[in-house]
Structures are given as structure tokens and as C-alpha cells.
Design brief:
By secondary structure, the protein is of the alpha+beta class. The protein is built from 10 helices and 15 strands. The strands form 4 sheets. A 5-stranded mixed sheet has the order 13-12-11-14-15, covered by helices on one side. A 4-stranded mixed sheet has the order 4-1-7-8, with no helix packed on it.
């Protein structure tokens, strides 16, 4: 009998241990400052569409939600009768929320691992974001030609922010919060950048539509990636109206650079690449800049002001109607391709430092 009791006790302890490890669910305690009339609170999730998870009465400004989720969700709480909502990443954790009735005062949210990651990231990038906002305000007041210097400064701030983003993604590869931080960038990233994101983020995030968008964009760009393929040939006019076929440059390493006079990052990149061109132009290196301008006077003025010494060609149709842009699947600027002596694409969207490394190795 004692043996039976012993094993029953062990079995019950096992059940107790399992219960401790079981999902405990989430609990949200909320308060709307200054709300003294009855209302309703609605809890929505936003992964794979907007879905109502729960509703609760608001009494004396207070409300609460309880439930469980299979995985972290992008969520929002909306209060009836006030035009205000609060966003959060919902997990099986406890949350305390203080909502303000207007947008002048900041809401307060405590609880949740994903929310902690988001708060830490926002705190680390707060100074950078303020600098970028101030620079952006100055940038808007400047003329097109005066924006180049500010554009370089903005690029430097963006690079610093990217370093912080990558640090957090490497530390929290399965973080839904960091996936949402990166979400606005996926549509404008090139293949190499998307490949890095796909490598860094964990497949555990596959439940999220944001992760699905990342994979979709990656697969699309992979299909358009030209490295290892023969560069599409083209022959379009230069400033004098003379058409120059790309194939005529075989026997040299060639950069095909898609840019425009209105593209500030392009103009800044041109200045960085000028020393490289001067260094290697007589050693088997050539450049062809394909402008996405649609007005010849603006294109010509930018070339003259920036002092660009290499080949300049354009269809003068703009990027949307450019046949060459379609051949190379160019949707954003700048986009750069490096061709070897046979006309094969050996690199795409590389930095000036990477370009110099390749030229130094092959054109000593």
C-alpha cells in the first residue's frame, strides 16, 4: 500500500510540475485616464489581418482582458467613444496599461518580453532618431543641389541605426518586435540585404505575415538577381545623342550604375567613386551611368556640377518607362552592377570598398 501511495505521490508531483510549465495565458489590466463614463474596450490582433480577440466593459476608466495566445502577436486596444488606441506585442504575460485620452501625452505599457525588447531598442536609437528628424526638417527646406551634403549626413545616421538594428536582431532572432521594426524596409531592400534578413530572422516567426512578406520579397529579388548571368546588352544615347552599346566595353571590368539627378544618395555615391575611377580607368576599368531622368537639362546639369568623367547615357523616360531598368529589374536608386571582362555580372549592389577590393585583385 505504501508503494502505491509513493507512486501516486510521484505521479501527482509530475502533474503539478507539468501544470507549472503550462501556458499561463495573458492578463491585461488597463486604465483610461480621465474617462468617467461607461464604454467598451476591444482587443485586436494584426498578424494576418485585423481580428477581434476580445471585448471588455470599461468601468470608471478601467478594463481587463484574459486569454492565451500560441505565439506573440501584434495587437491593439481600442476604446469606444475616444479616438485613441494603444499598440502592443501580446504574449502570455501580465500587462499594466495606462492610456491617455489624447495624443499629447504618452501612453504607458509595462509587461511582456517583446515590449521590453522594443523599449530597449527605442531607447538606444532615441538620440539618432532625433538627429534624423532635425536633419530631415533642414533637408526639406533646401534646394535639390544643396541636399547632397545633408544626404551624406543622413546616410551616415542611417548606417549607425542599421548597426543597432542588426545587433538587436542577432541577439533576438525570433523577436516579433524587431521583425516589425524592419518591416518598412523590406520593400526597398535589394537582394543582398533581404538575404541577410532571411538569414538573421528565425523561421519560428513564420506564423507572422510580416515574415511571409520578407520571404516573398526575398524570393522575388532572388529571381531578379543577375550575378552569374550575362549582363543584358543595351545601346542608348549619351549627352551628344550617340548610342553606345554596352557590349562594346567587353574586355574591361565595367560598372553599370543606375542613378538620377534627383537621387541624393546617387549623387553622394558618385563623389565617393570618382577617386576609384581615376585610379583604375587606365588599367581596364570603365563605368557607365544610366540616368533615370526624364529631362535632359536636369541630367546634364547634374553631370556638369558633379564633374562625372565616365560614360553617361539615358533614355530620358524616367524609371517607370525605362526599357533598360526593366531589363535589369531596377526599381530603386542607386542600383549598381559590376561586370567582368566577358560581360558577366559578378557583383550587384556592392559598396565602394567592395568594388575597390575586386578591382585591386584583378587589375593590379
Amino acid at each position: 500500500m505504501r508503494k502505491i501511495n509513493k507512486w501516486v505521490a510521484i505521479f501527482m508531483m509530475g502533474l503539478s510540475g507539468s501544470a507549472c510549465l503550462a501556458q499561463k495565458g495573458y492578463q491585461i489590466k488597463g486604465k483610461v485616464a480621465g474617462l468617467d463614463q461607461p464604454s467598451m474596450a476591444y482587443l485586436y490582433s494584426f498578424d494576418n489581418g485585423r481580428n477581434l480577440l476580445d471585448s471588455a466593459a470599461v468601468t470608471n476608466g478601467s478594463f481587463s482582458f484574459k486569454g492565451t495566445v500560441k505565439h506573440p502577436l501584434s495587437a491593439s486596444i481600442q476604446i469606444k467613444k475616444i479616438r485613441k488606441s494603444v499598440s502592443l506585442f501580446l504574449e502570455n504575460e501580465n500587462y499594466d496599461i495606462l492610456m491617455q485620452p489624447d495624443w499629447k501625452n504618452r501612453d504607458s505599457i509595462s509587461g511582456g518580453k517583446e515590449m521590453s525588447i522594443q523599449r530597449a531598442y527605442e531607447a538606444e536609437t532615441a538620440v539618432l532618431n532625433k538627429q534624423m528628424q532635425e536633419l530631415g526638417r533642414r533637408y526639406e527646406k533646401l534646394g535639390k543641389e544643396e541636399r547632397i551634403k545633408e544626404g551624406e549626413e543622413m546616410n551616415a545616421l542611417n548606417e549607425k541605426q542599421t548597426i543597432i538594428k542588426l545587433k538587436y536582431i542577432r541577439k533576438y532572432p525570433a523577436s516579433l518586435a524587431m521583425l516589425h521594426v524592419m518591416r518598412p524596409s523590406f520593400d526597398v531592400m535589394n537582394f543582398k540585404q533581404l538575404e541577410e534578413m532571411k538569414t538573421l530572422f528565425s523561421p519560428k516567426l513564420a506564423y507572422s505575415d510580416v515574415y511571409s512578406n520578407l520571404i516573398q520579397r526575398y524570393n522575388q529579388k532572388k529571381g531578379e538577381f543577375l550575378v552569374g548571368q550575362q549582363a543584358p546588352d543595351f545601346s542608348i544615347p549619351d549627352l551628344a545623342g550617340k548610342s553606345i552599346p554596352l557590349s562594346a566595353l567587353k574586355g574591361k571590368y565595367v560598372v553599370v550604375d543606375f542613378w538620377a539627378s534627383w537621387c541624393t544618395p546617387c549623387r553622394a555615391a558618385n563623389q565617393k567613386i570618382k577617386p576609384l575611377y581615376e585610379k583604375y580607368k587606365n588599367k581596364g576599368f570603365e563605368m557607365v551611368s544610366v540616368s533615370m531622368d526624364d529631362k535632359k537639362n536636369l541630367w546634364e546639369a547634374a553631370i556638369r556640377k558633379d564633374g562625372l568623367p565616365w560614360l553617361q547615357v539615358s533614355e530620358l523616360t524616367g524609371i517607370e518607362k525605362s526599357s533598360v531598368a526593366k531589363q535589369y529589374s531596377v526599381r530603386s536608386l542607386p542600383t549598381v552592377f559590376l561586370l567582368d571582362k566577358t560581360g558577366k555580372v559578378i557583383a550587384q549592389n556592392i559598396s565602394e570598398a567592395e568594388l575597390e577590393e575586386i578591382l585591386h585583385a584583378n587589375l593590379k
